[in-house]
Structures are given as C-alpha cells and as structure tokens.
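Hi,

Apologies if this is the wrong queue. I'm a grad student, and the batch job for PDZ domain-containing protein from Meloidogyne enterolobii produced an output file that my downstream script rejects. I'm not sure whether the problem is my script or the file. Here is the sequence I used:
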Amino acid sequence: MSEFKHQSGKPLDCLCMALKIYKQEVTLRSGEKIYKIGMSIGGGIDQDCSKSIYKDNGIYVTQVEPDSPAQKAGLKVHDKLLQVNRIDYTMITHRFFFFIQCIVNARFIQIVEP
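Support response: The file is valid. Your script probably expects a header line. Output copied below for reference.
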C-alpha cells in the first residue's frame, strides 16, 4: 500500500493527458543527425526515491528545454511519464528508459501524463 492508499496492481483513477510530440532533427558537429524532443528525465524502479523529491519510483520529467518540441506540446517539469509509444513506463528502470529511446527510431513519441 502506498502513501496514496493505493495497492499495487489495482486500478487507479487519475487524470491523464495524451501528448503527441514530434522529434526535432538536430545536426551534431560531427554531421550526424539525431532526433530529440528537448527534455530530461529522472527516476525509475532502480533508483532510490528517498533521495528524490518524488515519493515513488516513477519516471518524471526533470527538465524541459525552452522552445523545444516537448515545451510546445505542453510537457512540464514534474510530469510523470506513464506510457510512451504504448510501452508502460510505470515499472521500468532508469537505464531501460534510455535503452528504449535508443532502439525506438520513431520521429514522434506519445506521452501519457497525470
């Protein structure tokens, strides 16, 4: 049971918002082209949440770059990522988040946040 009186695995009512964010093409000094949305994340089930401002091991937005696709779509610092491109993010590790982002070669991401 969590501090929100919610038992893991049971349904939870919350307000969620789906966002579709198109990645921005960026050319590195090396000439390599990459796609990014302009945000940083923190958290994951492998992280110690006692050292965090968040009370659980979710994946949270910790930074949004000004004028980035993430900001234009309405993503904000402290938003919790529940699902990205139909992948459940409520029980993933911090490292797995980055692994998924590397192998998913999508030009957009769909984010669901509380």
